[in-house]
Design a protein that fits this description.
14 helices; globular
């Protein structure tokens, strides 16, 4: 059973802020802080590129599992409690990463963290996004929170590394600091996140109508997950292996987060002119260019251009992709959101595993990054028939 959460007369701005902070904690820190911490972990905990890919892949397995579980009706009427529980679990699991240096333990913790972040994302979105009809600022704030979290996590890790001397000695403190910020986010979100309207009608969403446009969109979204995540996981590590320097490592991820936070605002004019689907395809194509640039340009330019293009596009693709999916399945919007997230998660599982293995074998991240760009190109092309029909 899935409950319909109807927007009340509550001001949408605090709800957008709640969504932003929840996404910053669950996604910006819960999922993506691994990227700036990873180089220090590889040095301090003696992890190989393949090990790093396994840890990232475990997180995405958990994210996939959480997205699939969220598609069913067990949380009907309890969406708010599940969302807040996901945020609390995120904070606890971030702290747990500092308590071990075992590869197996890292994988288990990150798997559970993936489940927690998926629950927080899906159920917070199901509460917050209905208020976007009252104000488009709600969706921009909600999805922009991920970029805010990424930028803040980059600054945190940079400062910790400065205090510790390097990432090899500071990576544990970075996880603990991330946990503290995520818990603070939970404390602010809890009173702002609205409760489901009492007496809201509970309805059973029918099975998804797997018509051709929805199938193509889901495949495209899954390939996007594969293509973007290789750069999103290893961008700072790529900068480290090319000796770009610690300031460039910080700036690459900080630029990614800042651009992501502003990306929906930046793409708004194009959406109004050509629509969400065309903008979705354009963002993926631009991201493919940035992904290639991260390894083909000189180290400093590659890190900054790769981070900028990644930030400008990946949250816009996520937001517009889910919006398009809901439009293609108006009778089962939450199922569409959950299953598209599951496809996205499947791509994310394969991406780091393939990248870690290829980087280990080839000695650099060039080959896996070219593969990522190819996947993004196919992802954009899959949307062309939907554009023609529109």
């Amino acid at each position: 059973m899935a409950s319909q959460i109807r927007p009340s007369q509550t001001s949408p701005l605090p709800i957008g802020i709640a969504g932003a902070l929840a996404m910053a904690a669950a996604m910006g820190f819960g999922r993506f802080v691994y990227t700036p911490i990873l180089p220090g972990m590889m040095a301090g905990a003696s992890l190989s590129a393949a090990d790093a890919g396994l840890i990232a892949g475990a997180n995405f397995v958990g994210y996939l599992l959480g997205a699939v579980l969220a598609a069913y009706g067990w949380a009907a009427g309890r969406e708010r409690r599940v969302a807040l529980a996901g945020l609390l679990a995120t904070a606890v699991l971030l702290a747990a990463m500092a308590a071990t240096d075992s590869l197996a333990a890292f994988m288990v913790i990150r798997l559970l963290a993936g489940v927690a972040s998926a629950f927080a994302m899906v159920f917070t979105s199901s509460i917050v996004l209905p208020y976007a009809a009252q104000s488009e600022r709600v969706s921009m704030l909600h999805f922009g929170g991920v970029g805010f979290g990424i930028a803040l996590s980059s600054a945190l890790v940079f400062l910790v590394n400065l205090m510790a001397g390097d990432g090899a000695h500071g990576w544990r403190l970075s996880w603990i600091g991330s946990a503290a910020i995520a818990f603070l986010g939970l404390l602010i979100v809890a009173p702002l996140l609205p409760r489901p309207v009492r007496g809201a009608t509970r309805v059973q969403e029918p099975p998804l109508p797997w018509r051709r446009p929805l199938v193509l969109m889901t495949l495209s979204y899954g390939l996007f997950g594969f293509g973007y995540v290789i750069t999103a996981t290893f961008l700072v590590t790529i900068a480290r292996t090319t000796d770009a320097g610690p300031v460039v490592e910080f700036l690459a991820w900080f630029v990614t987060g800042t651009a992501a936070a502003l990306s929906l605002l930046a793409w708004r004019l194009l959406v109004r002119r050509v629509g969400a689907t065309a903008t979705y395809a354009a963002c993926i194509a631009l991201e493919a260019v940035g992904v290639l640039g991260s390894v083909l340009l000189p180290p400093m330019a590659g890190a900054l251009v790769g981070g900028l293009f990644l930030g400008l596009t990946f949250m816009a693709v996520t937001a517009y992709g889910l919006q398009i999916g809901r439009t293609l399945a108006p009778e089962s919007p939450r199922r569409a959101l959950a299953f598209m997230t599951a496809a996205f998660g499947t791509g994310q599982i394969a991406g780091p595993l393939a990248a870690g293995w290829l980087a280990e074998g080839s000695g650099s991240f060039t080959l896996p990054t070219v593969l990522a760009a190819a996947a993004l190109t196919v992802s954009a092309l899959l949307v062309v028939p939907i554009l023609r029909k529109a």
